[in-house]
Design a protein that fits this description.
Number of strands: 7
Bound molecules: nicotinamide-adenine-dinucleotide
CATH class: Alpha Beta
Number of domains: 1
Helix content: 40-55%
Strand content: 5-15%
Order of helices and strands: EHEHEHEHEHEHHHHE
Distance between the termini: 37 Å
Strand order of the largest sheet: 3-2-1-4-5-6-7
Largest sheet: 7 strands, parallel
Amino acid sequence: MNELLRSKVALVTGSTSGIGLGVAESLAAQGCHLLLNGFGDEEEILTLQKRLSEQYGVEVCYHPADVSKHEQVLSMVQYAEETLGTVDILVNNAGVQHVSPVEDFALEQWDRLLSINLSGVFYGIQAVLPGMKTRGWGRIVNIASIHGLVASPYKSAYVAAKHGVLGLTKTVALECARDGVTCNAICPGYVLTPLVENQIADTARARGITEQQVMEDVLLGTQPTKRFTDIADLGAMAVFLCGPNSGNITGSVQVLDGGYTAA
Ligand code: NAD
């Protein structure tokens, strides 16, 4: 267990599933108390809270805020402060995808993706920053994507939002550079989570190919290592960015993509 992280409070958005859950679990394993967030079945979330709490001996709360709604994000941060005392670590992870050619891209989907994947990150940072600055310590980790660095066809809103997240990460890092608060981004390549599994059929339709071809040629085709990025590796990177050896790492973009963006 990491002494610096023990008893720190981590708010991880979108932590009822996939990468967010993995990152939350990695932080809990280091002794962080957790505020979970995201959608899902109420019973399953309660069971998850209980499991994490018992397994790691930490407090685990939950708030159902939709991160695209400013008021709800404010309520979530306030709830964290009331129940767990503070927010020391914010991991902005909640995100959604929509796959469609630009000409057919529904405006509601454009707005939805930008508001969840980009504005939600801004709302969270704005809400936690005053407390972090006052305490002189804070860690902000934004889960962006290799689509913050390069594009793929049919993902205009996602790519635009993720590029925006990297710009926001760097700006916040500069603004907090002397305050003990770091802000970094993690850019995963493809990770096999519900978000990716759910886009296989849409991608097949948009490109006119089979789902098998999407897996082999589109997803793993872009990763020289021919393997998905492990959720546990993303959790370990988040722990490192929050830990004792990363105080001078800020505004950085950590790429875990199996060589995707090296090509
Ligand atoms: P996922 O679908 O498994 O999980 C998404 C989580 O976000 C869920 O907990 C969901 O309930 C929550 N969520 C969705 N909309 C929300 C909202 N409006 N408010 C609050 N919570 C909301 O997805 P994932 O693959 O684990 O993705 C997590 C993050 O990682 C996303 O930001 C995604 O863009 C990024 N990412 C994923 C991959 C990948 O290959 N899976 C690659 C690069 C980046």
